[in-house]
Amino acid sequence: MAAPPLSQLFLRPTVIGGVSREGDYQVIWDGFSIGRIYSTHGVGGHHIWNWGVILANVPQRPDDRGSAADLEDAKLLFKTAWLRLRSRLSDEDIAEARRISRDRSRPWHKR
Fold first, then answer.
1. Which residues, in sequence order, are CB contacts of 83 under 8 Å at separation 6+?
2. How many domains does the chain have?
3. Residue 2 forms part of a structural domain
4. Which of 13-17, 51-55, 107-111 tops mean pLDDT?
5. Which residue of 15, 29, 66, 68 could cross-link 73, Cys pair, CB 3.0 to 4.6 Å?
6. Is the model's pTM score more than 0.70?
7. How far apart are the C-alpha atoms of 63 and 18, rounded to whole Å?
8. What value does the CA radius of gyration of the chain take, rounded to a whole number of Å?
């Protein structure tokens, strides 16, 4: 079965220790997380949206992350970075990232 289009990305609430926070999302492509978009408070209490394309087996470059004024801009910047990064990766790189992601999501006692 072919992978979905590279631009077909979904947001899912980030859950850490069983807790999710408003404005914190995992970016999902083809069933696994390829990064995160989340809001923080900047200078003067303004919201800043941070984003980063994150694959465990791929070193993150400076242009694989950044910040934006709003969620829509963060999504656009993320997608641009993802498309650029994916063009440099082999199918084997993606398979390894998927394997690592799957292993990390399993409970420790089952590893």
1. 6, 7
2. 1
3. no
4. 51-55
5. 68
6. yes
7. 31
8. 15
> What mean pLDDT do residues 95-107 have?
81
Sign of CA dihedral 51, 55, 60, 61: negative
Location of structure tokens 């694989």: 64
Whether residue 106 is contained in a domain is answered as: no
From CA 37, how far away is CA 21, in angstroms rounded?
Answer: 12
Q: Nearest CA to 55 among 71, 32, 24? A: 32
Mean pLDDT of 27-40: 94
Whether residue 103 lies inside any domain: the answer is no
Say how far apart CA 70 and CA 21 lie, in whole Å: 17
Q: How many CB atoms lie within 10 A of CB 49?
A: 23
Residue 41 domain flag: yes
Which has the minimum average pLDDT: 4-8, 19-23, 44-48?
4-8
**Which phi and psi angles does 71 have, rounded to 5°?**
-60, -45
Domain, as residue range, for 54 = 10-97
Three-state SS string over 85-102 comes to: HHCCCCHHHHHHHHHHHH
